[in-house]
Recover the amino acids of this structure.
């Protein structure tokens, strides 16, 4: 790589790391928690708001259902965390839901889980970044006015940080995550103290607003449907739980134990914060509406389209701490930051899953290898591109994006827990130890309940969110599934085609003869070099081949050939239509037809140039010929480079080396070495 591009790369992502330093990038629990749990922890910043937004359809009177919805979400969260603790112990290799489903339910189920997770990871980045932009916009209007470019800029910044490596990015992200968690707990504790002990009346900025209900007096099925829709929106708090099971290899030893502990810590923190924020939202009379400009009323009149609706957590913080107070500002800033950093969960999950899928030949092999900083760089870049595209398409609107959310994650939850039930059933058939059987039966019961509950939630999510945008996520899953299936078929077909046979084949039988052809346009130094190299190979038959498109040039070539006494026969093919490529291809094919067991070796002189624009002026015929000859069976193509003086420019741009070994440099003869300076030693 040239110095011109290598220096900026090192500045942006740091110096390259050796493969044997991979162990240094493993994470302790204190860093793993913000790295893998930031999505689940940060979701409490928008999940309560999504619940209240849905309930606002029936007016303020429906808000009294929010504690029960929160309780239902808590039950699901507790069940999922308990279930995934079984996963990380049983499958610590990092395949997570994909490995569990593939091993126990079959490849198609595994590919379904992988498709769902890939879609969900892309949505995690898009939703987290747009939510962070909206939270930051409550303090900085410029951000809201230009939220699409700001969101894309944040995605690019996170991408660069993750390209520097998991451990380094995790250390950077840990502080804002812990500040956010501590800030929320202080807010809950101080708010509870003011309400229960001091008896203070805390009022949110929207407490005096009224909500114009879209559907007054809902009852029966309509009310049940509304509550289920609110519950499905609140389940956004569960996103990111599966990332820990996918990231077990990134933990320090004992990996499974540390991952399970991190899962428990994440679940406890997320549940406490979610319940606390919803409780304070009810105490402070927070008002939210899906169309705030029209449905929020102040003094009987709509607040108007210019009104910017702050998130629930911002309104609660203002009521508890006071607008403009130090703690309010710190929590607002930490909330915006942690929402940005929540995308880091996907930046760690997507590349690892992509690497495993690439190893299984479902994705391009380039996603399997690690980059300079021992991170899966190609997967990181692919995730960033997909998320940025989604942000642009949906105008960085979190309300629209969140409707696409959580479908994929509950598909993976359900199939994973079902697979774990089959896993325990399989082991119970052979296990005789009583204590181990008792442990397996308990684990199976946890996973069975998890499969039932997450499957039920999946049905609720699909029913309540399908027409609101969930169909887009399902379409994305289908596209991923079809694409990965096609890639696997291609790799399988190629592997079958190139597999070495036990019996002799055309590839293993030695060719009877080698017929070498040197392509000639003029008798100049590149041609003489190619002729000399071809003679060195000692083929059974060697000839020079030229295509006649200009009689005068052809005559000059013949005369020069005879004058120099070149001892290689020159064959000239007429080309009345002034084509070069087709006559060469036809001639080579005719040789193959005459002697199918012969190999035809074609030598093509090429210029080595130093400037990009020179590539447009040279080697075009050679490129076309190589492109066609590559598809001709039994033909070998050899490029014979000749270094032009302009290639010195490329030499100067290259990285510092003790010796320049550019292609064709040998034509200049031995390199004169400068004599060593006296060392002063006798």
């Amino acid at each position: 790589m040239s110095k011109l591009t290598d220096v900026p790369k090192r500045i942006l992502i740091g110096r390259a790391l050796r493969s044997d330093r991979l162990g240094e990038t493993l994470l302790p629990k204190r860093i793993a928690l913000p790295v893998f749990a930031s999505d689940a922890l940060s979701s409490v910043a928008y999940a309560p708001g999504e619940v209240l937004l849905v309930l606002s359809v029936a007016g303020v009177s429906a808000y009294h259902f929010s504690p029960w919805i929160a309780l239902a979400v808590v039950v699901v969260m507790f069940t999922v965390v308990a279930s995934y603790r079984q996963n990380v112990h049983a499958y610590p290799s990092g395949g997570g839901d994909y490995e569990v489903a593939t091993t126990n339910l079959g490849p198609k189920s595994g590919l379904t889980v992988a498709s769902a997770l890939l879609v969900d990871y892309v949505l995690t980045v898009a939703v987290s970044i747009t939510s962070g932009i909206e939270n930051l916009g409550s303090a900085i209007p410029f951000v809201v006015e230009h939220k699409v470019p700001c969101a894309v800029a944040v995605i690019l910044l996170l991408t660069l940080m993750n390209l520097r490596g998991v451990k380094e990015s995790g250390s950077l992200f840990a502080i804002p995550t812990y500040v956010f968690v501590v800030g929320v707990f202080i807010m809950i504790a101080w708010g509870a103290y003011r309400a229960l002990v001091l008896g203070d009346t805390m009022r949110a900025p929207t407490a005096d607003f009224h909500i114009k209900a879209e559907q007054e007096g809902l009852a029966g099925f309509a009310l049940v449907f509304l509550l289920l829709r609110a519950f499905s929106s609140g389940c956004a708090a569960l996103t990111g739980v599966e990332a820990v099971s996918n990231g077990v290899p990134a933990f320090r030893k004992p990996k499974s134990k540390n991952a399970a502990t991190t899962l428990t810590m994440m679940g406890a923190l997320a549940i406490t914060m979610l319940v606390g924020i919803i409780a304070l939202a009810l105490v402070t009379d927070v008002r939210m509406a899906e169309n705030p400009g029209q449905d929020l009323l102040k003094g009987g009149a709509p607040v108007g389209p210019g009104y910017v609706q702050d998130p629930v957590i911002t309104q609660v913080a203002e009521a508890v701490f006071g607008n403009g107070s130090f703690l309010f500002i710190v929590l607002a800033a930490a909330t915006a930051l942690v929402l940005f950093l929540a995308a880091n969960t996907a930046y760690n999950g997507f590349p690892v899953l992509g690497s495993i899928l690439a190893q299984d030949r479902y994705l391009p092999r380039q996603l399997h290898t690690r980059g300079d900083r021992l991170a899966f760089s190609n997967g990181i870049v692919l995730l960033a591109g997909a998320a940025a595209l989604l942000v642009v398409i949906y105008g960085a609107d979190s309300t629209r994006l969140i409707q696409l959310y959580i479908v994929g994650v509950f598909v993976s939850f359900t199939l994973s827990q079902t697979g774990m039930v089959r896993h325990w059933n399989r082991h119970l058939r052979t296990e005789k130890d009583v204590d181990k059987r008792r442990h397996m039966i308990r684990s199976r019961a946890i996973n069975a309940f998890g499969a039932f509950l997450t499957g039920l939630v999946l049905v609720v999510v699909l029913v309540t969110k399908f027409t609101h945008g969930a169909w887009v996520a399902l379409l994305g899953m289908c596209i991923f599934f079809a694409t990965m299936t096609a890639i696997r078929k291609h790799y399988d077909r190629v592997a079958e085609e190139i597999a070495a046979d036990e019996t002799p084949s055309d590839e293993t039988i030695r060719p009877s003869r080698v017929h070498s052809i040197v392509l000639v346009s003029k008798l100049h130094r590149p041609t003489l070099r190619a002729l000399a190299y071809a003679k060195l190979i000692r083929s059974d038959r060697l000839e020079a081949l030229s295509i006649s498109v200009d009689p005068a040039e052809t005559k000059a070539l013949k005369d020069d050939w005879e004058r120099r006494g070149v001892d290689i026969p020159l064959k000239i093919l007429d080309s009345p239509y002034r084509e070069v490529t087709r006559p060469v291809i036809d001639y080579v094919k005719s040789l193959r037809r005459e002697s199918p067991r012969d190999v035809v070796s074609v030598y093509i002189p090429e210029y080595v140039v130093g400037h990009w624009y020179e590539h447009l002026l040279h080697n075009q015929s050679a490129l076309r010929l190589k492109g066609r000859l590559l598809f001709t069976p039994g033909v070998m193509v050899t490029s014979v480079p000749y270094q032009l003086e302009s290639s010195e420019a490329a030499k100067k741009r290259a990285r510092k080396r003790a010796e320049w070994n550019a292609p064709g440099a040998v034509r200049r003869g031995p390199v004169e070495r400068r004599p060593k300076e006296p060392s002063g030693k006798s």
